[in-house]
């Protein structure tokens, strides 16, 4: 809870929810490697609070105002799986950073280990969850953009090129040691940017641990979390990122830390591609590019967080191993380029 002033926060929340500050409970919610999430228990109900991580800032990925606007826009687009935004507070005096509050969706989130309590997912459960996950991704990609106002959240023209150059630049600024496979992958991506552009609303971090599931039926998706990188762009870039996180049984153990897709019953990456292609009008003949980009992006995200750890700006012990994620993802990207296989 470094730097967290809970007294100031409770006083602020007491005014917002019209209750005494002593009636408010705040506790951390275990999550990913990025923005911090806290559970707020108030007389008015439960809410989730999001704030940026401490220390080294990573581009605009931690823009609380933007994430709040995304959730507002999704409500207007009648998208049912985005938590309802409650409040955005820009002044840093209360919490040391801007933050926003949204509804807390009760349910189960599958992290990198099977649940120790409640129902354990079976092979059949994972099969259905795989399908429902891709269905949910397709639903998002097919949202109407103009009337809903979602189009205002991004610039789809030139999106792929901007992403390739942008993530390459982020890598250069966060690099802590030479990794030749990262340099080769960046060069290949720059030289192989597709000419065809697609347009849709995209999440940019769509994987199991960002899904809230029905605890009684773990294949039912109640909500999608972590909208900080959502925008309007090429849906195949979104699919590529999901494929990069979609670990299979033969993959390196360190790449299995982000998703339980390697367990029996889950779609394989090729089954994901097949299913998405069958239910989308987008052409996936160049899916290798988007997959390689996804691996590169995952590596850069890990590199950025690892740099924060190296600089002493983040002390989470999990961060120490992230440099290995960079190396393994980079090698996997290079192998995919050479073999043309996903």
Automatic annotation (TrEMBL):
Q: Name one Pfam family in it.
A: APH
Transcription in keyword set: no
GO function terms (MF aspect): protein kinase activity
Q: Which domain of life is it from?
A: Bacteria
Aminoglycoside phosphotransferase domain location is 25-257
Keywords (alphabetical) are:
Transferase
Can the keyword Lipid metabolism be found in this entry's annotation? no
Where is the signal peptide, in residue numbers?
none
PANTHER family linked to this entry: HAD FAMILY PHOSPHATASE, HYDROLASE, PUTATIVE (AFU_ORTHOLOGUE AFUA_1G12880)-RELATED
Q: Mind telling me what this protein is named? A: Phosphotransferase family protein
Originating species: Algoriphagus kandeliae
Q: What is the lineage of its organism?
A: Bacteria, Pseudomonadati, Bacteroidota, Cytophagia, Cytophagales
């Amino acid at each position: 809870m470094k730097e967290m002033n809970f007294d100031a926060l409770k006083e602020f929340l007491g005014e917002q929810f019209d209750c005494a500050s002593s009636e408010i409970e705040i506790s951390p919610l275990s999550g990913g490697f990025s923005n911090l999430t806290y559970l707020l228990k108030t007389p008015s109900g439960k809410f989730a609070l999001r704030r940026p991580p401490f220390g080294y800032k990573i581009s605009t990925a931690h823009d609380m105002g933007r994430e709040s606007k995304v959730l507002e826009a999704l409500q207007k687009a009648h998208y049912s799986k985005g938590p309802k935004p409650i409040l955005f507070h820009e002044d840093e005096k209360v919490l040391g950073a801007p933050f926003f509050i949204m509804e807390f969706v009760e349910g189960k989130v599958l992290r990198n280990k099977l649940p120790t309590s409640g129902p354990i997912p079976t092979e059949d459960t994972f099969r259905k969850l795989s399908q429902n996950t891709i269905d949910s991704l397709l639903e998002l990609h097919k949202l109407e953009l103009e009337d809903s106002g979602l189009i205002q959240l991004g610039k789809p023209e030139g999106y792929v090129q901007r992403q390739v150059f942008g993530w390459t630049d982020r890598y250069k600024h966060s690099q802590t040691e030479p990794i030749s496979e990262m340099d080769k992958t960046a060069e290949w991506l720059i030289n192989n940017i597709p000419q065809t552009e697609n347009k849709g609303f995209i999440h940019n971090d769509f994987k199991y641990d960002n899904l809230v599931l029905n605890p009684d039926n773990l294949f039912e998706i109640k909500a999608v979390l972590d909208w900080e990188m959502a925008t309007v762009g090429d849906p195949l870039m979104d699919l590529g990122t999901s494929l990069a996180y979609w670990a299979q049984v033969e993959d390196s153990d360190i790449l299995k830390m982000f998703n339980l897709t390697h367990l029996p019953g889950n779609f394989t990456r090729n089954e994901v591609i097949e299913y998405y292609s069958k239910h989308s009008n987008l052409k996936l003949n160049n899916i290798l590019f988007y997959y390689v980009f996804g691996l590169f992006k995952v590596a850069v995200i890990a590199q950025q967080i690892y740099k924060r750890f190296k600089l002493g700006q983040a002390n989470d012990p999990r961060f120490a191993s992230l440099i290995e994620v960079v190396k393994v993802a980079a090698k996997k990207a290079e192998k995919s380029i050479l073999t043309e296989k996903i």
